[in-house]
Amino acid sequence: MAASRYRRFLRLCEEWPLDETKRGRDLGAYLRQRVAQAFREGENTQIAEPEACDQMYESLARLHSNYYKHKYPRPRDTSFSGLSLEEYKLILSTDTLDEFKEMDKGVWKKLQERFAPRNPEEKHKAWARALSRPRT
User: Fold this and answer.
1) This model's pTM is above 0.85
2) How is the chain split among helix, strand and coil, in percent rounded to 5?
3) Domain extent listing, the chain
């Protein structure tokens, strides 16, 4: 029975789309990682709680098939902000969020990061050079 559960989860992982704009935060990538952890031994994995496993699969399958989107249709495809789906995807991409974080930093913090040594050894060498310079 574990083999059939494993195959169902694999099929779901194959069908679940990956969003390349959300590096490190993508639900599809996280799902693949969790399935690999849960089924370390593949089809031979012993499942401690088969009912919970089946329930998890059914929940994920409903999300993937847009069950609730079809069950509770929205009258319009807009939100309170008036932005479209494509605009939200652009805003929520990892690159855009990184840009927002960079904009949020103050000038002093940006300068520190730009001129700070990358590793502790460089930091030590920079301090040694600064202390060994003759003062004029």
Assistant:
1) no
2) 65, 0, 35
3) 1-73, 76-135
